[in-house]
Amino acid sequence: MRFDPAPRLRGSLVAPPDKSISHRAALIAAMATEPVRITGYLDAADTRSTLEAVRRLGASVEAGPGALVVRGVGLQGARPTGGPIDVGNAGTLMRLLPGWLAAQEGRSWTLDGDASIRRRPVDRIAEPLARMGARIEATDGRFPPFAVHGTRLTAIHYELPVASAQVKSCVLLAGLSADGATTVTEPAPSRDHTERMLAAAGVAVQRHGRHVTVQGGEALALDRVHVPGDPSSAAFWLAAAAIVPGAELTVRNTGTNWTRTGFIRILERMGGIVEGELEAADPPGVPAGEPVADLVARHAPLRGTVVEPEEVPLAIDELPLVGLLGCFAEGETVVTGAQELRVKESDRIAAVVGALNALGGDAEATEDGFVVRGTGGLRGGAIDSGGDHRIAMLGAIAGLASREGVEVRAMEAAAVSYPGFADDLRTLTGR
Ligand code: S3P
User: Fold this and answer.
1) Which atom of ligand 1 is nearest to the CA of 165?
2) Which of 91, 229, 248, 375 is the most buried (most CB within 10 A)?
3) What is the pTM of this model?
């Protein structure tokens, strides 16, 4: 698909529903026994994989007007599937679901997915689940396909070696069925949607600094969940507005949970203009909901910045866009402490540096991030998404702000998180 320079980029759109929160809503609803009404569930490839998985595990999913109703099977009620569960491209499903399955005494499942999923490590969840008593058998000890053998779980205190919301969530979901209090300690804050949704479901989740604790044996009571707009999807438009001359965009209904807005803080530090109320950092306790706001972003001259390791988990999926902004900024933009990018849907350090250089940028990979030297913009050219949704959309946004346009091969990857991306883009460019 070709993306030509945009002479005009103005207007307003609604951010598509949050992928992270949608996965959690379907999984936590499947673990409950009373029906849960989910509004705003993301209809995309990744979150369809989650609905299909919970159906196969015995939950019923009915689509009503504007809502899904999930009837779950309870904390210990997951049924045998008689064949592998296909997680598709969804890393979040692959790492959260085993937290539930590990607690099913005497039952086993195999999880598998696409070619990208088969390169993504699962030892990070196998290790804490094994400490709780479950057994995970992974390919070469680390990769999908892998088997989860459920058991009666023991509560643990787990110190995460890397700040990962997926691993934290997996252990917390397992902790709901363990005998006692399970605590996860994070090296730095990561997205806290699981904690918030469990709090909304009546679980006594406690947070003290970097420690999060859940008690085993508590039933889930979640009537309804509303999924807000995805700040990671909104970020493409905020970035586009920043680098296309004369642009002004409003992204309505965007989630502003502070654990997801690191990118906006980085953009503002670079000189970008974003108006709208963000949640204040580190609110006390565990809020039982998700804040939203309408965000307005405008074109502005940018300067380079250094993204520090502790900022990385709060902007992890948007770091490719920081690289793109760097091409349009004065001076150097440096991302450090982001080695996790190497094990995302693609090796995103290699993918971002490769894409920006192919479009005329000046980017260099480091072991744990990248350095981009601003050269006043991008020429344009052609890139391949390599099947990574965020790289596909990065290419499209680069095209709008480039001098000659960008051709993105395998643009269909965008459907993993944002099936309406190309339509929204046409609306905003008026083409
Ligand atoms: C996610 C957490 C992040 C993020 C991913 C979604 C989640 O992964 O990159 O896209 O929903 O918990 P890690 O927790 O592995 O960093």
Assistant:
1) 14
2) 229
3) 0.98
